[in-house]
Every structure is written in C-alpha cells, then in structure tokens.
Amino acid sequence: MKKGHAKIIRLKLKEDDLHKLEKIPNPRLHRFVTDAVVLCNPDSVFVCTDSPADIEYVRKRAVETGEEKSLKMEGHTVHFDGYYDQARDKANTKYLVPRGLDLGTNINAIDRKKGLAEIRGILKNIMVGREMIVRFFTLGPGNSIFSISAVQLTDSAYVAHSEDLLYRPGYEQFKQLGESDDFFAVLHSAGETENNVSINIDQRRIYIDVEEEVVYSVNTQYAGNTVGFKKLSLRLTIRKADRESWLAEHMLVMGIRGPKDRITYFTAAFPSFCGKTSTAMVPGESIVGDDIAYLRRISGRVHAVNVESGIFGIIQDVNPDSDPTIWKLLTSPGEIIFSNVLDVDGMPYWVGDGRKHPERGSNYAGAWYRGMKDKEGNEIAASHKNARYCVRLSNFPNLDKLADDAKGVPIGGVVYGGRDGDTLVPVQESFSWGHGVVTMGASLESETTAATLGQEGIRSFQPMSNLDFLSIPLGRYIQNHIMFGIGLQHPPAIFAVNYFLKDKKGKYLNGIKDKYVWLKWMELRVHGDVPAIATPTGFIPQFRDLAKFFKQVLDKDYSEKEYVEQFTLRIPEILKKIIRIEKIYRTGIMDSPHIFYDILHEQRQRLLEAREKYGEYISPFKFLE
Fold first, then answer.
1. Kind of pairing, strands 538-540 and 286-289?
2. Please, what are the averages of pLDDT over each run of 10 residues along the chain (625 residues)?
3. Is 120 contained in some domain?
C-alpha cells in the first residue's frame, strides 16, 4: 500500500485490519477503500477475511447493532426493512453513463459526472459514528474460468451477514489478483436510521458506474438494493459477458433426474414471484442455484455455474405441501435470516405458511395487530408479500454434487416462464435454438408482482426475465443470444412454461405441483425419449404421456378434459402477443437483428394457416389428425 494511502486510513483501521488489507497487493483496491473511508468517514473499519473468526464477528455484530434479532430456533434471526423499503427500487436504480456511451433505449441512466456528484454528496460523512465492514467474495466457483472477484464496503452488519450466506469467500482469491483491475466493487450505507431501519427513503439511490465497475447504494437496507452482487452486479456482468462472448443470465440451474439415474441440467429464467425458487427446489431433483447463472461454451456444449452459494428466496406460500424441502430447512436449526415476516415471541410466520397466525406480533411496521392500517389507509399484512429468507445452499440436502465444479454443469435445456393468465400453454418446446430465443425468451411477458415497487398485475415485457438488469442495448443482447447457439455441437433445447394459465372464470388450470410433470417431460424431450405434437408455436406433450407422468410423478389422474383446457392453442391471444412484441421492438429497439422479425413472421404465418384450417381455438388433438 502506498504511504499516502496507509497514512489516511491508519487512523481508522486497527493494526490487524490494516495488515489484512496490505496482504492484498492491489492498487485499485487500496484506492477504492481509501476513497470510501475519506468520503464516508466511519469511526472504524473492520476488514473481514475468509477466517471463521472474522465471519463470526460480522454475524454477532448484526445482532449487537439491532439490525437482526435472534429467534427461538438456534441460528435463526429476523431482520426488518423500513415500511417503504420492501423491494427493488427500479426508479432510483440508475446507470452512471459517460457521454457517448449507448446502453440502449430501455436504460434508466444519468450523466456520470452529475450522478457521481449527487451520490458522493449523499455519502459524505454518512458513516460518522459507525463501523465500515470490508468484505471479499468470489462470484462463481473459485479459481475458475467463470469466477469474478468482488469487494463490498458497507456500514450494515445485516447486509454483510447476508452476503456471507449468499457468496463464496473471496479474500484468498483477491490476494492472487496482483495489480489487476478486473474486479467489481460496491459501496453501501444504510444512511440515517431509526429503530435500526433507513429513514431517508427520499434520498435512496442505487447508482451503477459502468466505467469503473462500481455500485453505489445508500439510504436503503432491503437486500435487493444493497447486496451488490445480486442484480446490481448482474448489470456489470452483462457488459463483461458482452465483451467476452458469454452470457450472464437471471436463471436458476438445476438437475432433473431421468431414467437409470440420468441427470440432465437445465437453466431457467422466471421473473420474481413466478416460481423460480420453487422450481429449483422440486423434490427429487437437485439444485445448483436459484437466481443468477453464467453460461459459457466449453468443448461444443453450454456449461453454467451458479454465481451464488446461497438463496435470498421469497417466503410467501412456502409450506409443507408446496415446498417441502424449503419448509423443512426453514423449520430446523441452522443459520437463516428471515426478513419482513411476522415475529411472535421468537417464532416467524408468513403469508401462505399453512398455519393459523396470531393476532399480534412484530413486523416491518413495528408492533403489529390484525386490522392495523398504514397512513394511506391500507391494511398492513402480518408478513409482507415480498418477505424473504436467506440461507446457504450447503444447508440443503438436495444440493447437486457439481454445484461448485470449476467447469460448471453441462446444460441440456433452457426454460423461460412468466405469469400469463390467458395466452400460452403450460409447457412447449421450441423448434430450434433461434426459434426459442426469439419466441420464448425475447418475447417473454409477465404480470408484475410485489418483488418490485409499483402497481401489481400489469402485463410487463420481460425478455429473458432480464430486462431490468440490461446494461447493453436490447437488440445486441438478443443478437448475442442467437449467436451463442451457433456452432454448438449440442445446443440445449429451449422450452417455455406457464404455471399461471386460467380459465374464463379466473381459476388456475394447473396445480402448484404440476410443474413436476412438465420438468420430467422436458428432461425426456432433451434426449428424444418421448414423441411430441407439432403446433404452430412449438412442440407440446401428447396426452397419453402426460396421463402416465401425472400418475407416476404425482399419483394423480389426468383427464382429456384437463389436457384440452390446458393445451388448446389460443390463436387470437397469441396473435395479439406477436403484435405487442413486434411493436415494442420496431418502435423502441432499433438495433434488433433481422432474423428476429423473420422468426416472428414465420410464427404468425403458421398461426394464420392453422386458424384458416381449424378455427381460433384449436384442441391439441386436432394436430394429430
């Protein structure tokens, strides 16, 4: 470390912490930490290595500061975010963009100089009276072609503790960087707090400096806004992947068991609240990761890794019936952080847990009672719809044996799904890689949910479930996906699923567990083990196969009536969807590749021909005639 740097921060760091920092001979890291210390002016700085003692210090600190409270069960704690700090703040999450850099038309951006001046002004002296924690992590398995080093500075022990559960330790890998600038950096402060929650929500800012690969987050504690290596760094990774010809995706990675103990690995993209974690945790299958994946081409195949090593999962509707694996973990001793649930005498309760809830307790609104209303007159639920749990994946018995493999896992299938009440069938397979990218990934729509601030239930354009996190023009992002599949000896099959199809009365046509069957069918299709029916939009299952799978997998009878209701081709709705999607791309995404429109046109023509032959709503059996 340079003498000037050491002199500045020696006043804030104990000798031991300074020695930990000096063991990493990286000028950029030293500059970043020094600048942050001078800017935020904490009373002290704790440098956390990979040692159990350092990690335990952070865990205990979260309880000592009051950001977390110990619950009855061993290892369980609860954290409450502020009442108006319960989800990702899309409006105040902005890119700091230098003049001349084009990130695309869907990007929420601010001039870099102006944004830096604003965020640094807010951060000035914001940590007075507090301790800054320095944490090092590895995104992806350590010492791998996939791995990216990352450092976060924060004055929130809760945020630092959450990151310890979510990411692989990275201090030792940082020591191997030498003078390389190739790492991500995050600076976060909870800002002024009252009752241990951020109160200056009007000054909440989450700014992403794409030039320096730094994330700034202030006046917020909600993990989606503060844990910098989730969706915030995903934005940086998408730019890195664009430069280096790989993919950074909002995807789970899981293994599905086939005949004779065969395991086929899938990635799958779902917007939040659309079944991603529950899909990753399907009983009998194995999980690699539930949120973010890096995909690379290795020896003619697609390989993927889980960026994280833990889960920050939505807890609503986790119960013994719908999510038995997660339920068992959440009701057993072990290190778990619950957030924004109802706490009653050290017992956590949440929406959809299958239990009778007490009339009073503590939650994100403070001392809560049934019928309590906020200042806008809205009734306050016992547990927030976006309440979460945070836990290490190693705690799960179904963690896949290759979860930390440096080469990742070979991918046999890619799945896209969202909330769609009236248009698409429950499961279908694309005709080709390009057809799947365009009609299933790039055309994905989903109804909005409580995971982001704003009105719920609105049909939202969500290409690859990644639109909120794009940091390159969407047209180029789609082109990258199409090109990624070219030249692969074994391209993954692409599927679309829809768990939320409803009948005309608004009743869901599928049960929560029906996804178990769709997954088994997709696994067999990857290997060509079962036939399928060709429709204008893709391949769908045959009734006889589904009837067999429902009996085998769920011990459930499946009728022809159910099959016809679910797999009828809804031509008017699909044609309207194509019109919506094409309009979005033609009017707002000017750099879309020509093949995108060609594939959409071909799909429209097939639908028009089918309508001419069979009518507007076509039974799946018609395609067998």
1. unpaired
2. 65 92 95 96 96 97 97 98 94 92 80 97 98 98 96 98 97 95 97 95 96 97 95 95 97 97 97 85 94 96 98 93 92 98 98 95 96 95 96 96 97 96 96 98 83 63 92 94 95 97 94 95 98 98 97 96 98 97 88 94 98 98 93
3. yes
CB contact burial 352-376 (16+ within 10 A = b; e otherwise) = ebeeebeeebbbbbeebeeebeeee
Q: Indicate the residue among 244, 266, 286 that finishes a domain.
A: 244
CA distances from 571 to 216, 458, 473, 618 (A): 46, 21, 31, 8
Which long-range contacts (C-beta less than 8 Å, at least 24 apart) are formed by 340-345? 340/79, 340/80, 340/81, 340/86, 340/364, 340/383, 340/384, 340/386, 340/387, 340/388, 341/78, 341/315, 341/383, 341/384, 341/387, 342/368, 342/382, 342/383, 343/69, 343/71, 343/78, 345/72
Claim to verify: residue 354 and residue 230 sit in the same structural domain: no
Active site residue 390: no
Residues 417 and 469 in one domain: yes
Q: What's the CATH number where 451 sits?
A: 3.90.228.20
524 shares a domain with 462? yes
Q: Is residue 87 part of a domain?
A: no
Q: 597 exposed, middle or buried (CB, 10 Å; 0-12, 13-18, 19+)?
A: middle
CA dist., res. 555 & res. 562, Å (int)? 16
Q: Model's pTM, two decimal places?
A: 0.94
For the chain, the distance separating the N- and C-terminal CA atoms, rounded to the nearest angstrom, is 76
The pLDDT of residue 102 is 77
Domain match, 351 and 481 both: no
Query: Please, what is the angle between helix 543-554 and helix 515-526, to 10°?
Result: 120
Kindly state whether residues 187 and 260 are assigned to the same domain: no
CA distance 359 to 378: 17
> Quick check: is 562 in a domain?
yes
Do 596 and 516 sit in the same domain of this protein?
Answer: yes
Tokens coding 593 = 């590749």
Domain range enclosing 164: 3-66+92-244
**Measured distance CA(262)–CA(160) in Å, rounded:** 39
Given 40, 48, 274, 390, the catalytic residue:
274
Q: If you search the block for the tokens 């769908």, which residue do you land on?
A: 540
